[in-house]
Amino acid sequence: MRTKFVAGNWKMNKNAAETHDLLSMLVGGLDAIHTVERVVCPPFTSLMAAAEMLNGTGIGLGAQNMHWEEKGAFTGEVAPGMVKELCGYIILGHSERRAYFGETDETVNKKLLAAQKAWLTPIVCVGETLAQYEAGETAQVVASQTRLGLQGVSSEFAPRIVVAYEPVWAIGTGKASSAENAQSVHSGIIRPILTDMFGAETAQSIRVLYGGSVTAANAVDFFSQPDIDGALVGGASLKADEFLSIARVAAQ
Ligand code: PGA
Prior knowledge:
The protein has helices at 16-31, 47-54, 80-86, 95-100, 105-118, 130-134, 138-150, 179-198, 200-205, 219-223, 240-251; strands at residues 5-9, 37-41, 60-63, 89-92, 121-126, 162-165, 207-211, 230-233. The protein is 44% helix and 15% strand. It contains eleven helices and eight strands. Helix 2 (47-54) links the parallel strand 2 and strand 3 (60-63). It is globular, with a radius of gyration of 17 Å. 2-phosphoglycolic acid is lined by residues 9, 166, 171-172, 211-214, 232-236.
């Protein structure tokens, strides 16, 4: 049995004071849901405030991006070791980073290998664009993003990886994928690639999340699918009651 996993991707929202306010409403309720792995991912400048509030709770903290180098002349970047000072988790290869900031499968892979070295739990995002979906290219795109993004990972680290299938057309649009479609991508595309790369036992232990317009209302459909092990939640993670409801559904 894979432990369900619910992560909030706050994107570029919530400064330190707002982070404090949102977490004040979230921490007690979220901390009580022991059977689900719960993580929040605020912007870099809010991580310190969040780390203080999450200290001593069972709630994990993640960053939304990092560089793969350990230090050096990379203006504006943050190193894995710096993330590790505050966080246990790191989102890698989110489609917004791929679309707006030039991330490729190659840079995602470099970051993943850096996460392995720093022993950060990565949430690796894959997913097809609307054009690719309409052209029937979902399987090809998701398979190659998964394979290229995850290559070279050690067998010790592989079970720690969390994969998030986020069809780009479903992110922030209010038009979530159907649960059946997500299940078929998870079981028919992602899990077989993981099996091929790491063997059946490891592939069965890797959590594969769905992301894209997840709400408290549709979470139950997703979480009742056998290969959907949780959710990466954007917009709905900015509302305490909504995110708490999603985490509670995951615990059912
Ligand atoms: P959304 O975002 O829930 O707002 O669609 C999901 C994500 O980008 O991770």
